[in-house]
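Researcher: Quick sanity check before group meeting.
Model: Go ahead. Protein one:
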Amino acid sequence: MVTLAEVAQHAGVSSSTVSYVLSGKRSISTTTRQRVEESIRKLGYHPNAGARALASSRSNIIALMVPLRTDMYVPVMMEIAVAVAAGARAHGYDILLLTGEEGPDAVRRVTGSGLADAMILMDVELDDERLPLLRGTQQPSVLIGLPADTEGLTCVDLDFRATGALCVEHLAELGHRDIAVVGEAPAVYERHTGFAERTLDGLRTRARELGLRLLHRPCEGGYDATAATLARVFDERPETSGFVVQNESALEPLLALLRQQGRAVPEDVSVVAVCPEQVATQASVRVTSVAVPAQEMGRRAVEQLVGKLDGLGGDEVVLLAPELTVRASSGPAPVRP
């Protein structure tokens, strides 16, 4: 393991100068600071969390609240969590992972005990019960997600409203006029989870503007639930030729069911998904999709939080622009006789 003394020797400065660069407790010239930072990068030095805590009266721990619910796609949540952990370690912080569905109680436990210096919260609802507590504490926090009211909060998220609009625009450009949305599990909407509600708002608003008919049906995911949802869609809207899927566990069952019904993708039906890149590319048909940038969301959240811990950042909403990648699952709408 690289030591602080080795960094000092490599940079040609004293150990105390390296310490001041890391802590920011004294003013260091720009040239010297840059030389020290370059040595830190080249040598791969990571500050010792315990030593930093003793020097700064901090725990050097970030609490990450990520409720693991059965109705959520856990791999995406954990990919974000891993990105947060990696980003935190790069800044000399460890992660305290809180996976229970405790809501405000978990926030009170962290703020009242000194367990962590700051918090990152995931699975954000539009009217999240944790928000009044966050606004009432001096402890820095960042949300990965967007509530209805962002005043006094720092948030990082994919722009899900723009994501929904982008999916509709793509299908409209291909000539599809009847679009069905296979959504998340009903409980996700009952909780008014931010990403799902905002995507649906973007879908509906853009469809209305373009004069398209849009049908939204929540789905538990899995083969049986997806089969029931698909049957309901075609029963209610037989002319449906475009699907938007925001439910990773329903995507492959949907493709299989369409094949079984003799509906070719994309000749008869086009499918667009909001999902991780690997889910779209590893499906039985490579799916046109808007990727969920899990790693970027985790990295940005840590950067925002570390800035607040260092007294450099204020409240800010960071929305990542969606990017749609066209693959084999979307094509021109079929010509109706």
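Researcher: Fine. The other one?
Model: Protein two, sequence then structure:
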Amino acid sequence: MKILVTGGTGYIGSHTCVELLDAGYEVVIIDNLSNSKIDVVDKIKKITNKDFKFYKGDLCDYNILDKIFSENKIDAVIHFAGFKAVGESVSMPLKYYRNNLDSTLTLLEVMNKYNCKKIAFSSSATVYGKPESLPIKEDFPLSTTNPYGTTKLIIEGILRDLYKSDNEWSIAILRYFNPIGAHKSGLIGENPNDIPNNLMPYIVKVATKELDCLNVFGDDYDTKDGTGVRDYIHVVDLAKGHIKAIEKILNETGIDAYNLGTGNGYSVLELVNTFKKVNGVDVKYKIVDRRPGDIDACYADNSYAKEKLNWEAKLGIEDMCKDSYNFVKNSNEKK
């Protein structure tokens, strides 16, 4: 079985490609490298000792997708590609709507042309907006607090309309919570091309003295220590959730959404303090104003994914902190 992975050299995409290859799937990657590096291709090959095709290209380009589908018999798609920074989406909404929606529509049009009707979509817990209660279940009302989340919710709607129009489609909507951590080899992990938008790479850059201080956005949330609470999930656990989703969509039609989280909520300061403890390093931080679009707390009820996909997270917050630091130390040693 051959799986096309869009955004496959990115953070979650690269870890998922490793799990796919280890599980015996063939992989084809398309990525424009806007937020990843080309050396990830060789690192995936080194970890798995397996080869695969890589296409450098933009998902909004119909011609490159048509070329990929004409040159490869694609059985299913995992769609990661898209801009993903909440704060940037608030200040640059048109960039997010144009890229995230255009790329998905182009992908679906080409998939339809080649009768490839199986897709796992990388959605987000942001589609739950500000939840009225916790933990969050898949049937909660959907709303958004930022343009990034709105693009995910619109795409979920597009996928539901697509399935209504043609019941041959098989679609898994995967709503991630907060992926952190890295592969235990230390070869791949979260390594943004510019200033990090996510918490863990920021913590690591302060720990390695690349940055002076971590900005903690707000200490007046309605949480145990005033800092935002999130459901942090190890990226390897998240990647394995995609393998389960692919198994599901390859064997049946339909559309469904699944939370991929641990079911545990940790505050920003809990994550910082755990990182300091397990790695024996200091992380300086200062409290700054809240970011627009952020909510107090967000964590999953993951029982539906356990029931329907036979998946649950295995790794804890200490593993996430150790593996994140190991990846960056390993990267820095090789510079």
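Researcher: One line on it for the slide.
Model: The radius of gyration is 19 Å.
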